From TrEMBL:
Coiled coil: none annotated. Keywords: Membrane, Transmembrane, Transmembrane helix. This is YggT family protein. The chain crosses the membrane at residues 7-29. It comes from Candidatus Glassbacteria bacterium GWA2_58_10. One of its GO terms (cellular component) is membrane. It comes from the Bacteria. The keyword Kinase does not apply. Belongs to the YggT family.
Length: 85
């Protein structure tokens, strides 16, 4: 049960980081801010494959939203899988 809670918590936290990244992309932020750079450094490795597969549509990058939903589905599947052990 400890492993389930850890995986669920870690992926939920990462989901919040992705959500923050989505929100800051909609508003003008200073990307030289150390906190914003850290957020980008933490989320870019997960977002890059989605950006390669999903081109921007009319200048809007929907790949972070897709990545967010994929992460939530992955979290759900992993938690259900781990609960069976």
């Amino acid at each position: 049960m400890l492993m389930v809670n850890f995986v669920n918590g870690a992926l939920t936290l990462y989901g919040y980081l992705l959500l923050a990244r989505i929100l800051i992309s909609w508003v003008g932020v200073n990307y030289s801010n150390p906190w914003i750079r850290l957020l980008c450094r933490l989320t870019d490795p997960f977002l890059e494959p989605f950006r390669a597969l999903i081109p921007p549509l009319s200048g809007i990058d929907f790949s972070p939203l897709v990545a967010f939903f994929v992460l939530n589905m992955l979290r759900s599947v992993l938690v259900r899988f781990l609960l069976h052990f």
